[in-house]
């Protein structure tokens, strides 16, 4: 560590003695080419917590951390970590869910006397319902939400319907919700989340049997 030529990075971990005091240290990965001072992120379960100066509250476990550009030429958008803050050398990696083959359901969104039909994807694992702003009626007011949406691609700043929307499914089930609105792939009109599906009495199940 602490050298741009190093092959050894580190895994930053808390100590059990620190956790017993009610201080939780968030784990972090230190790239081999990081040359700055290592800082930690921590929080107290029940503040305030007094920690005497010089106390050991974290530890670094050395581990082999070969960098991507050691196996191939460095790409123009790749940078050395050096003394920079959060982030990591190389490309970001995001886990995705294959949406192909997910069940599709017809729903009708209604605000006042205006109604629109949407074909939406079910079983996407979304916690909240999101609709494509491309197909959202322009005269249906939106506002800034109190929360962000975090998923594939990082954190997004969506809008949320300013008014409750009446949602009717093709089997005549009716619920009321305030969905989020944001850019989605042009072929995706909406992603009903657990906030909507739970009102329909749907639950997540698996055909796997655990003993």
UniProtKB/TrEMBL annotation:
One of its GO terms (molecular function) is aspartic-type endopeptidase activity. This is Peptidase A2 domain-containing protein. It comes from the Eukaryota. PROSITE patterns: ASP_PROT_RETROV, ASP_PROTEASE. Residues 118-196 form the Peptidase A2 domain. GO terms for biological process: proteolysis. It holds the Pfam family RVP. It comes from Zosterops borbonicus. SUPFAM superfamilies: Acid proteases, dUTPase-like. Keywords: Aspartyl protease, Hydrolase, Protease.
């Amino acid at each position: 560590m602490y050298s741009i030529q190093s092959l050894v990075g580190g895994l930053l971990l808390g100590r059990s003695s620190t956790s017993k005091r009610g201080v939780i240290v968030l784990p972090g990965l230190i790239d081999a080419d990081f040359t700055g001072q290592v800082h930690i992120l921590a929080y107290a379960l029940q503040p305030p917590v007094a920690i005497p100066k010089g106390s050991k509250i974290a530890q670094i476990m050395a581990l082999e951390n070969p960098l991507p550009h050691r196996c191939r030429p460095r790409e123009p958008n790749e940078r050395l970590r050096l003394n920079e803050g959060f982030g990591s050398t190389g490309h970001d990696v995001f886990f995705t869910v294959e949406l192909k083959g997910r069940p599709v359901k017809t729903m009708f969104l209604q605000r006042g006397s205006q109604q629109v039909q949407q074909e939406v994807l079910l079983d996407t694992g979304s916690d909240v319902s999101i609709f494509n702003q491309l197909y959202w009626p322009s005269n249906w007011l939106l506002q800034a939400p109190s929360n962000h949406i975090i998923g594939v691609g990082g954190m997004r700043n969506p809008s949320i319907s300013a008014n409750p929307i009446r949602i009717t499914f093709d089997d005549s089930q009716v619920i009321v919700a305030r969905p989020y609105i944001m850019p989605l792939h042009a072929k995706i009109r909406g992603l009903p989340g657990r906030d909507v599906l739970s009102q329909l009495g749907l639950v997540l199940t698996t055909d796997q049997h655990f003993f």
